[in-house]
Task: inverse folding
């Protein structure tokens, strides 16, 4: 019986995907993603799924940022 695959996902691929999705430079996204991962890792007992929560936090930050921008639509 084989052991489960415990390898972490490719962070460069995650960062590149998030950067494309959020329309920001990869270097900026790399800093934000790593900041979120480190913040989550500080109190984590299990670090296997940190990347999932870091992705969620990054996307939420961009969603909030977009909601805070004034709308360009005319009322």
Result:
């Amino acid at each position: 019986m084989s052991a489960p695959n415990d390898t972490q996902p490719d962070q460069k691929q995650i960062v590149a995907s998030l950067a494309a999705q959020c329309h920001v430079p990869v270097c900026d996204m790399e800093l934000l993603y790593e900041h979120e991962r480190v913040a989550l890792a500080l109190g984590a007992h299990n670090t296997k799924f940190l990347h999932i929560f870091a992705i969620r936090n990054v996307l939420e930050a961009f969603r909030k940022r977009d909601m805070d921008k004034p709308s360009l639509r005319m009322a």
User: Anything to note?
Assistant: The CA atoms of residues 19 and 53 lie 16 Å apart. The chain has a mean pLDDT of 85.
